[in-house]
Design goal:
Blueprint: H1 12-17, H2 27-33, E1 39-45, E2 51-57, H3 59-68, E3 72-75, E4 80-83, E5 92-99, E6 106-112, E7 134-137, E8 140-143
Parallel strand pairs: 1-6
Antiparallel strand pairs: 1-2, 3-4, 5-6, 7-8
C-alpha cells in the first residue's frame, strides 16, 4: 500500500490509526531538505524508560530545552521551534539530557506533565502515552 491516496494526499487518519504498514522511507531526505542542521532526539519516559517520541533538535531547540526544562525540538516540516505541549498542555519536563558517543544524537529523559506525549488520540479521545503504540505483525499493524 502507498502512503498517498490517488490525489497524492496522505490520509492521516489511516496513517495514524490504521492497520496498514506505510513507512516513510523518505523521512531523512525531507529532514535534510529542511535547511536547518539538526540531530535526532530520542525521548524516553524517565521512570519506565519507554521510548515516547523520535524528533529532531537544532542548537536553538537544545538551548531552549536546557534553559526552560521543557522538551523542545525543531519542527523539520514547519521549520520552527516546537515546544512540546505548548498548545496541547502535554508538556514533557526534562529530567536529564544525554548525548551519544559520537555526539550526533540526543536522549531526553522526561517526566510527562499531561496525559501523554503523542499528538494522536486513542479511540476514546485521550492523548496516547507515546508514539509507538502499534506493533508490526504478519498481517500489518496491531495496536498494543
Amino acid at each position: 500500500m502507498n502512503r498517498k491516496d490517488y490525489l497524492g494526499v496522505i490520509d492521516h487518519a489511516a496513517l495514524e490509526n490504521g492497520p496498514a504498514l506505510l513507512i516513510d522511507f523518505e523521512k531523512l531526505r525531507k529532514v535534510s531538505a529542511c535547511g536547518e542542521p539538526v540531530v535526532p532526539v530520542i525521548v524516553q519516559d524517565a521512570s519506565s524508560r519507554e521510548v515516547l517520541i523520535l524528533a529532531y533538535a537544532n542548537e536553538k531547540a537544545l538551548r531552549h530545552t536546557l534553559e526552560s526544562g521543557l522538551a523542545t525540538f525543531w519542527s523539520t516540516s514547519r521549520n520552527e521551534l516546537w515546544i512540546k505541549g505548548k498548545t496541547s498542555g502535554d508538556e514533557l519536563n526534562i529530567v536529564e539530557v544525554r548525548v551519544n558517543c559520537e555526539q550526533n544524537s540526543l536522549l531526553y529523559l522526561v517526566k510527562l506533565a499531561g496525559q501523554g506525549s503523542c499528538h494522536v488520540k486513542d479511540a476514546k479521545g485521550r492523548t496516547r502515552f507515546g508514539c509507538y503504540y502499534r506493533r508490526v505483525g504478519p498481517g500489518g499493524l496491531e495496536m498494543i
